[in-house]
Amino acid sequence: MVDAPTRVIHGLLALGFTGAWLTAESDALHALHVTLGYTVALLLGLRLVYGLVGPRHARLSQWWRRLAGAPSWLRGVVATPAASGARPWRQGPNLLMATAVVAMLAMVAPLALSGYATHARLGGDALEDVHEFFAHAMLAMVLLHLSLLALLSVMRRQNPVRPMLTGRIPGPGPDLVRADRRPLAVLLLAAVLGIAAWQWQWQQTATQHGGAPAGHAARWHDDDD
């Protein structure tokens, strides 16, 4: 079972990054792009906190433990003769999944900070290039994550996305999560949406009073003058 706060944060992170990516090149939607960027940064903070104090299945240490097993797995792959057919390939997708998840979480901070610097016109083209680099790297990790989910669904003949939608893993066995924590999930959802709405209003007001939106779009217009 995957508890409700974990599902809410995961879903909002996915929606936030997707929206930020789709609005990145639009002058008209620049305020929405900035709002979504700040929201993703907020969600990262919430996920890190929940990964430290939340239930065991949501702890970030779970991912680190999986990554810690990578060296021994690689040694096993190298040491086992290919002709034997006994190489532990099945663990590979799980290690790649852990790598992709940790990489995505690690990229949010530099992505958000470089986005803020670009929005505030700090650092010039260099920081804009940094922002674009991390945006493309993040997209690559997202695509890797989705590809691994598809691979695992074929290998295990299960839908690995379902637990993030329903909160339950199909099959027999006891629930490892004692409580779904739905009130906390509702509180988190309301807080994130409220802060995002306030940030959206603030960005709209700043754009109206300041003319062209700050960031790369505004700088391109300035360069044309």
Q: Treating each run of at least 4 consecutive H or I residues as one helix, how many helices?
A: 9
Strand content: under 5%
**Distance between the amino and carboxyl termini:** 58 Å
The total strand number stands at 0
Q: What share of residues is helical?
A: over 70%
Mean pLDDT over the full residue set? 80
Secondary-structure content class: mainly alpha
**Oligomer description:** single chain
Low-confidence stretches: 211-225
* Major sheet description: none
N-to-C SSE series?
HHHHHHHHH
Number of domains: 1
Radius of gyration: 21 Å
Task: Tell me, briefly, the overall form.
Answer: globular
What does this structure look like?
This protein is mainly α. It has one domain (4-77, 88-171, 185-224). It has nine helices and no strands. It has helices spanning 4-22, 30-53, 60-68, 70-79, 91-119, 124-156, 162-166, 182-210, 216-224. α5 (91-119) runs antiparallel to α6 (124-156). It starts with a helix and ends with a helix. Residues 211-225 have low confidence and may be disordered.
Task: Offer a concise description of the structure.
With 225 residues, the protein is an all-alpha fold.
Fold topology:
Blueprint: H1 4-22, H2 30-53, H3 60-68, H4 70-79, H5 91-119, H6 124-156, H7 162-166, H8 182-210, H9 216-224
Helix pairs in contact: 1-2, 1-8, 2-5, 2-8, 3-5, 5-6
